[in-house]
């Protein structure tokens, strides 16, 4: 191999390696930015209002499914759907490797379990298999990525919250 061919070949290999490294670092940076953008969206004042309204609806009617909740209060139900759609998008982003996985575990696991077991699973997923696949995917992903103990702890805390509200709701509906 002459000097020209060797230097051309090494230059080409260097360019390919450099561009691959640049792509990898840029892609990782984009995932971090997108994950922080999702976290920022979830913590806006507007989303806080939606979470508050949705939680109030669930607390008031903890035994109802989404269709029944919609008949009780359409405004608060719209807020619950905003949260549901947020987590559907998060599940889709995780499934398609568009987010930084470690940050998703840290930023979203606790709140996701709260909404999943406190609302989505008992009121939506049991009745609507269409539209729940990204929520199911996200739950399964968290299960695989946070470990069995944390999964069981978060699930138990979220289910306990719903059971407590169901019992409070039942006792307030009893006539003396």
Q: Counting H and I runs of at least 4 residues, what is the number of helices?
A: 7
Element string (H = helix, E = strand): HHHHHHH
List the uncertain runs.
none
By DSSP, the count of extended strands is 0
Summarize model confidence as the mean pLDDT: 84
Mind summarizing the main beta sheet?
A: none
Percent helix range: over 70%
Distance from N terminus to C terminus (CA atoms, Å) equals 98 Å
- What shape does the CA trace take? elongated
Task: Describe the 3D structure.
With 176 residues, this protein is an all-alpha fold. The protein has one domain (29-168). Helix content is 85%, strand content 0%. Helix 5 (101-125) packs across helix 6. The radius of gyration is 23 Å and the shape is elongated.
Secondary-structure blueprint:
Layout (H helix, E strand, L loop, with lengths): L2 H40 L2 H16 L5 H7 L1 H22 L5 H25 L7 H14 L1 H26 L3
Helix pairs in contact: 1-5, 2-4, 3-4, 4-5, 4-6, 5-6, 5-7, 6-7
What's this entry about, in short?
The chain is mainly α. It contains 7 helices and no strands.
Which tags fit this structure?
mainly alpha, 85% helix
